[in-house]
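ok so i was messing around last nite and threw this chain in just to see what happens. nothing serious, just curious
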Amino acid sequence: MAFNVTKTGSPGPITDQVALGGTAGNVTRVTFPRWAREISVRIFASNNTTPSAGFVSHSGTDGAAYNADAVRLEESVPFMVNCSPGSHAVVLYIAGDGANDVAHVVVGA
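result:
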């Protein structure tokens, strides 16, 4: 279930869709490039158009239920984080409220 957000060539904006799996509330480990400065996450239902809700955390276990420290994402409200580029990739654990939800992610350099 783990997913790597990548782009070949020089760092720059990335948009991607991450399938969050078939079980509501279970997290998918998403790894973002180490050069990421801005990350935005919105969750949609499996049809990719209907907003959904879910959770985001900096810790967890891929495929397991979200942790108690997860932040609630309400429908149509993006989760945004500003990062300091470094030597390590940024990892987020994302879960949707519905089975087969999809996370739309945007990464800026």
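not much to say yet. Strands lie at 3-4, 14-19, 28-32, 38-44, 54-57, 71-73, 79-82, 90-96, 102-108.
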